[in-house]
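dude i think i finally got it to work??
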Amino acid sequence: MAFFTIKRIDELASGKVLAPERYDPRRKSLATPNCDLDSVPLRRIAESARVIVGRKSTEVNDVIILDTSDAREGLVISTKMPVSRDQIGSAKKLVREGDVIISRLRPYLRQVGYIDARIPHWQPGVGLACSTEFFVLRSIDGRRISFLIPLLLSGPVQAVLSAAQEGGHHPRFNEPTLLDLRVPKELLEERERISNEVELAAGLYRDSESKILAGIRAAEVGLLALRDGEPTPTRIRAM
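look at this
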């Protein structure tokens, strides 16, 4: 089904944007006549953080860099080792524990992640940074925002982000689209419970991840022993 929107010149987006995607009515599909009573905009809960680091930055010496493929379905799945700031390459955004990251690039890939404290190899003295393709959501009042993970992955929000993407080869949605999303007040009333569940799920994932990594290390020890002609253990216990 085709969608039509008619705009006067003075109603065009800043810069007189003519891209038809900018005026897709599905971008406003979460708005209702009573939306101010039943919900609040995301920008009243979280801000988009933009602390940038690069090769000349002094904020960190060593840093783990997250690319868009390192976040998926609410979790950060990276096991990358830290690199020196000389190896950062292009500018990156610093993230903190408790942040929520969401890729603006190809939203259908669902590259959303909660920044938990147990991300592999992240330790004191090591920074954590992500691609500038991510929007970094940070609480504006210090309260937990992990409850936003299910919201951002929900069908209605994904439909809005999909409708809002602009560009052919590398479709992206913009920051106002994200910050203008409506958060139901019913969800806000449950934010602590939902945050607990999201963080518990992240912890269970880390437990599973650590067991798999331990198994990999044990397998490597056995293979190196074979290569070097050393006696191999009769049993490898890692799980």
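The longest helix spans residues 191-228.
im so relieved honestly
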